[in-house]
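Quick board copy: two proteins, each given as sequence then tokens.
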Amino acid sequence: MKIVTVDEMRELERRSAEEGTTVSMLMDNAGLAFAQEVRRWRGDIHGCLILVLIGPGNNGGDGLVAARHLHDWGASVFLYLCTPRPENDPNLRLALERKIPFKSASEDPKLEDLKRVLDSAELVVDAVLGTGRSRPLEGTMKKVLEAVGLAREARSKLTIFALDLPTGLDADTGAVDHACLPSDITVTLAHPKPGLFVSPGAEKVGKLVVADIGIPPHLAQDIRVELMTPEWAARVLPKRPIWSHKGSFGKVLAVVGSINYVGAAYLACEAAARAGAGLVTLAIPRSLHPILAAKLTEVTYLPLPEWEPGVIHPDAIKDLGPCLNEYEVLLVGCGIGQHTATQELLRSLLFPGFPSMPRMVLDADALGILAKSARWWQRFEGEAVLTPHPGEMSRLRNISVREVQQERFRVAKEASSLWKKVVALKGAYTIVASPDGRLLVSPFANPGLASAGTGDVLAGTVVGLMAQGLPSFESAACGVYLHAAAGEKVRERLGDAGMLASDLLEALPLTMKGLKER
């Protein structure tokens, strides 16, 4: 499912008109699709009082069409015109022909009629401003939105539906006006917009629904930013032929864990196995081997020499280097620590690497060590997936965390292009970027995943998929999807507080099973 900017959406509408689906037809389709979503949510809408806020442009026109259908299906609809509509507006005329009651804000200076309807309305439709908003909310429009917001605070059962996006939210950047009206459900039209997945805008969206309005799908085929969907994930999942053996699904070598982060090694290796890798070998400081061998019974081991207890010695490169060609994928970083000996080992491993270097996933401490290495990407030639959280990305790019979070799409794309590596910028709505400019965006935002160890599970999931032969970009994106979808399964069972990283491990194969059975 493509994610489009405002300019791209306008271009799609223009090209759609050239092919015979005019703006008027798109408006009719949009209003009907939105009304259908309202009815799907509410069920029987007979007698349901619905307040529809109408703005000045196409978004208001979509709202008028939706109001007409809701009225025809038996709802009690009240139109509130935040600004005047054109005198020859056909959709307003059709609404008035049905005798749908309405009020203009210009005739309601103290908003008394608006507040009266709000007192008994069950649902408010925000059709004030859509993707074309470019000015601050002020005057009457601002007062109307603030009044609705106050009513929503006073009556928790008052539901707000946004048509395309909440008024006051910038569709491209996710920036919001102070008067932006938070929505319970946002029905975005044709394609989701980037701002719906970037804070603070994402916090105003509520549940996101994408409505088809009749724009021919082929018109968007060249757009390179997409939202991950269950259908996409099911197509990408590695196949499991019945005649397979463990060698069919690849071997993972994991250089992870240290004295302070034994759990990271467990979580990453177990996730790789749960994601379907045929064999996982854990390269671990020798003194930690007994601890992890008691926990990870399906994993094989490569005990490594130590600088001190629980810290790998730089000379371990002599053990690692000769066996790299035996593995399809190398995982480095989860809990290895930032000791100077560890830094020396990693630089020996990556700069310039070995002739038989497998594909890699670099996470956590490996990224921290890279960030301390000047222009590391010019010396690191191997094919790899990097999985930074916002803090790690800020250090790798020498920019603020705030800039990372406000410009997530741009930052992920530029980092991948500069480094020539696949990048998974973690967080709510994780973004996976390819050096060729493709971006895939996770549809999930789960605060339950904001706990220690979940990143280790993600890294292991990605490396497990890579071992089975998936390309790096697809492995990273599918791993992100499976990890987050497993998190949703756990949240359904436990809630979003108290979820542990280890809870995801059993949910991973169940998530894959569910996708295959769709």
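And the next:
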Amino acid sequence: MNSAPKAEERGRKVTSQGGGTRSARVLSPGTILENRYEIQRVAGRGGMSTVYAARDLRFGQVERMCAIKEMGDSEPDPGTRALSLVNFEREAALLATIAHPAVPKIYDYFAHDGMIYLVLEFVDGQDLERTLFARKAPFPEEDIVRWGIETCDVLEMLHNFDPSPIIFRDLKPSNIMLRSSGKVALIDFGIARTFQGSQRGTMIGTEGYAPPEQYRGMADARGDIYALGATLHHMATNSDPRQQTPFTFHERAIQSLNPSISIAFADIVMRMLAYHPDQRYQCVADVRFELENVANQTERRHSISTPRSPGGAKEIEVNPSLEPAAGQLDRRRPSRKRSVRRRNTEDVLSERFLWSTATADEVRGTACYDGESVFIGSYDRHVYCLAPEDGAVRWKFPTGRGVVARPVSHNGLVFVGSEDSAVYCLDARSGGIVWQYRTSMPVRSSAVGHENRVVVGSDDSTIYCFDLTEGEILWRQRTWGPIRSSPVIHENRVFVGGDDGYVYALDLGDGGIIWRRQGGGPVQSEPYVTGSVVLSSSRSGNVVAFDRETGERAWQYMASGAVISSPRVQNGTVIFGVADGGLVCLNQDDGSVCWVQRYANQITSTPLLGKIAGYIGTIDGACVSFAIDTGEMIWKHELGGSVVSSPVYAGSALVVGSTDGRVHGLALATWEHTGLSGEKSEK
């Protein structure tokens, strides 16, 4: 016999956010519904319903838990009440027809004392919003990617549901449950609905997560993709979109809020969050494919539990016929029979392997070579000075945080920025500090030296010009976004891009703006000056040639993905990498396409170009040599981690950093040296 008081006797009034009142019928532990379901506790509450954890008493020998979702008809507004009831009934109907491990099963549906109830599979776990709140810090990328893939799987099922696609319309962290097993489950199908092309309706969703078109009553699969992107952004940054101005994700770049997030993952999320639906991924299957690529790269890095032996480096000879004809250049290559030794390790099988020097964390920055030494930063919070012939550490300098900026050597000094917000000036021979200047945010821009001054950008939206030896500020120019592009100096002008989407031409003397032009999206690559134009690329995929004097556009090319790689010029052509894995070659005069080659999932590395061969790093973990005139691959050398930095020629070695935490020195055939500068790193 049920001796618990009736639900209506326990009803009380609470003030709603709108100032009115609504019933807050909270069932006490021990209440039994339908002579079967014993309420144990409140599991969650929303604006329209309450969810209880309950026990199914028909299974007396075991404790079978279920979730009971309760909603009443006491909303004061008749329209809201009717809509809520319709959504509740729709949810019951939808769940009854869906069979997927990430969607809770529905067991029962009944009315009691003026309330209606759904009895659902109990999800043992906690939603991602509460988990994130308790954590008070972003989740690791590996976990976010895994949850994203699992969510894509259930969304793909819904979007391809037979007989009619189902649009969820309210994806957010609080509607994704993390089971105790680590798997996710999608909950609260109250406003999901079958999709009818070009159908309009009432704006339903959650501000911050809902896409722009949903505010106009339009919803399709691309809206769920936007909401998933907003959810992944929240998980990766701990920046709640409900507390920000809607549709401003582009102003809160993921890596500016969490530098540990990879460029590959950040680019996927930002494409999902494009304002216009046509600029997003068009189906969830494409999102899942991209996320799986990121997961595969992460798994590959984690599979290397110990530093990769040099014997494990793979050498792929793709097209030896691309070498110059006999008589044009010396075609001799390093002998496969020679024994090249890594310091303190076993012999090497790969003919290109010269040396490999370990740091304590990922190496994402590009090296600098001054004719005597190689300088490079690591996420282990150090700047390294290495011997180019064998990779021996000559000195290392500690900073407060990771170093991703490329060091620059000028007049016997080394300048480098760090994520600890400081710009350091070091003695090139000893590594001793000469001066430092602390900006207000991380410094990821690489400095450039010219005569008695050095110029560098900072995430604090400022371009700084310092006196070379004293570190005094000669001028500073404020912009409207972080400066991660590396400045270039040409004929007393400074050219640099900004995350505000502009390319700037500044006066080297006083920092005054000579011209400022839209680059089509955040510009994080380094501009390149050639002839009468300045070349620039952006994360939106725009590659633009600006007139050097006026800033007027000479031509523009739209790539098929984000372009973080800086354009480089050789033999009258412009070559750069694209985030979709393509390597593109354009005619320098008009921007027409000469060739496009793909040999990676993603390329953010800037190409190093000789007269015959070029070199690029890939996210797949390889250093690739290609023919300048055709783009055909000459050789491919696999490393132990992704290569997001750019190869640099240093004497007889090709030097490149990798996320395996190592700086690698690779050997080149004699003919490959043609056109490569051995005096300093290529800009």
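Board note added afterward: The radius of gyration is 29 Å.
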